[in-house]
Each structure stands twice: as structure tokens, then as C-alpha cells.
Design goal:
The protein has 289 residues and is α+β, with helices and mostly antiparallel strands. It has helices at 14-24, 78-81, 84-92, 113-122, 177-184, 212-227, 233-248, 256-268, 273-286, and strands at residues 29-32, 95-98, 105-110, 127-130, 135-140, 146-150, 153-156, 162-163, 173-174. Helix 6 (212-227) packs antiparallel against helix 7 and helix 7 (233-248) packs across helix 9 (273-286).
């Protein structure tokens, strides 16, 4: 009979030690990269060959032990967490995350002071955890996970993960009706993407392109490329933004409407408004704009 080889004590990390402690209490955990993102698919599941969704929010049918598929990798099994297959991830991890839905809770992620003030005025008290920009309010019960239910507020529960930032303070209470309403309602319109200014071109802003149809066709093709991405959504969005800016970033023909269309396409594939802004800014910087 084959037994999983335990990680030697000297090979353990503080993140693994924390994960084992949390798992022992029944919290499904997983490693996060230093940038707070989940580890990518394992070699067996590279490019979601196993059938998982490209945004890694939905796992495929595989049974691999590696920390892939983001939230679906979360586990309470010590044998899995300490297996050689996970060793590299723990040594490269920058933090520990957990699957709220798997623990039977929902996290109201408040991303700024205004969102925290809204919660204090609107939501019933519950356990709170201080984050780098705001607070996590943790409630008993699960709901559908939805980002940006209002400005600065995300709901993380089923099919999602949250960074572990400590046990927090206060007593956990049931998910309130207002949170249920927020995740079930679909806003009439998505929040407008943040505008990113494109520097005016040298030469007075005259566009050298053949016709407005040339720009329109380019934006439509960029939207289609983002929408059709089956994997590597982050890199596809960045590459598309880079291509658009390379073609149109210096002549002054791009408008906020054009940029907004690209941001909306990216957000529909799971990118957050903040990630869109970062990708656009990084692409502009790479081109010297």
C-alpha cells in the first residue's frame, strides 16, 4: 500500500503551517501567489484540458491533487496539503486563502472606506476582519458569489475564495436579506469602466488611418478576441490592449467609448475594473505612451 510522503519539518513553510491549522478546524484552504492570485492549472490540466472554465472558477472533472482551479483546490485533507505535489506551491505561496462556500459562510468584501461606512449603516453586525483596504464581514450561510454588487463591494461565497487575514472579531450571524437581494439582483447596467487618458499625438491629433471604419473594425475585432478567449484570459486581455494601443494610441482617435467597450468585454470574461485599468496602464507604459 502506498502512503503519501509527509513533508519534512524543515521543508515546511509558515503558510503551510497556517493552512494545516485552519484545515484542522474545518476550513478548506489553498495557497495564493504573492500577488494574491491563485496558482494556475497543474500540467495535467494545462490550458484547462480537463474541461475547467478559463477563469478557473469552475473545475473540470479531473481528480488531480495539485493546487489548480483556484477555489476548487481548497481542501481540509492534510494528506493533500502536505503531499509532494503541493510542496512547490507552498514554498512559492505569498498567502493562504480559503473557500467561504466550502466552510458554509459568505464574505462581504468591502474594498474601501466608503464601502465600510455603507455596511455599518446597512448590514447587521457580524464577525469582521480588517483587510489592507477595508474589511471582510463574514456571515453564516452561503450565497452566489458576485463581484461589484455596488461600488467597492464584492460577495464571496460559493465558487470563490478569500484571503485569510485572521479570525476577526465579533460573533458570526446569518446572511441578511439585503445580501441575498444584492446577489440576486442584476443591475440594469454595469458600472462604467474607469477612463484611462490616451496622450494626444504629436502633430495636432490628426488620425492617419484611412477611415473611421478602420478604427471601428479594429475595436470590434479586439472585443471578439477577448470574448472568444478559452484560456489565459489575463494575458489575452493585456495582449489585446497592447495591440489596440500600438495601432491607435498615438494618433488621438481612441475615445472613452472605445476604451469602455474593451473594458466591458474584459469584465464579461471575469476581469475586475481594477484589473482592466492595470492592464491598460501597463500596456501604455510598455509602449511609452
Amino acid at each position: 500500500m502506498t502512503h503519501a510522503t509527509p513533508i519534512r519539518r524543515e521543508a515546511r513553510t509558515e503558510h503551510l503551517d497556517l493552512a494545516l491549522h485552519l484545515a484542522a478546524s474545518g476550513l478548506p484552504v489553498l495557497p495564493l501567489r504573492a500577488g494574491k492570485g491563485p496558482f494556475g492549472n497543474c500540467p495535467t490540466c494545462a490550458d484547462n484540458a480537463c474541461g475547467g472554465r478559463p477563469n478557473m472558477k469552475t473545475p473540470g472533472p479531473c481528480q488531480c491533487p495539485l493546487p489548480c482551479h483556484a477555489w476548487a483546490a481548497a481542501t481540509t485533507e492534510r494528506a493533500v496539503l502536505t503531499s509532494p505535489a503541493w510542496a512547490s506551491a507552498w514554498h512559492r505561496a505569498g498567502a493562504v486563502a480559503y473557500h467561504p462556500g466550502g466552510a458554509g459562510v459568505s464574505v462581504v468584501d468591502l474594498d474601501n472606506a466608503a464601502a465600510v461606512n455603507w455596511a455599518r449603516a446597512t448590514l447587521p453586525p457580524t464577525r469582521t476582519v480588517t483587510t489592507t483596504r477595508g474589511e471582510h464581514w463574514i456571515y453564516r450561510g452561503t450565497v452566489r458569489s458576485v463581484n461589484h454588487v455596488r461600488e467597492g463591494v464584492d460577495i464571496k461565497s460559493t465558487m470563490s475564495y478569500a484571503r485569510w487575514l485572521g479570525p476577526g472579531t465579533g460573533t458570526v450571524t446569518d446572511v441578511p436579506a439585503v445580501v441575498h437581494a444584492l446577489v440576486e439582483e442584476r443591475p440594469a447596467a454595469r458600472p462604467a469602466p474607469r477612463a484611462v487618458a490616451v496622450p494626444a499625438p504629436v502633430g495636432g491629433g490628426r488620425c492617419p488611418h484611412r477611415s473611421p471604419a478602420y478604427l471601428e473594425r479594429g475595436i470590434a475585432m479586439a472585443e471578439q478576441r477577448i470574448t472568444a478567449a478559452d484560456s489565459a484570459v489575463h494575458s489575452t486581455v493585456y495582449g489585446t490592449f497592447l495591440a489596440v494601443l500600438s495601432a491607435h494610441g498615438r494618433c488621438g482617435c481612441l475615445t472613452e467609448a472605445h476604451i469602455g467597450r474593451l473594458f466591458i468585454a474584459a469584465q464579461a470574461r471575469g476581469e475586475s475594473p481594477r484589473h482592466c485599468v492595470d492592464a491598460w496602464s501597463n500596456a501604455a507604459t510598455a509602449l511609452g505612451l
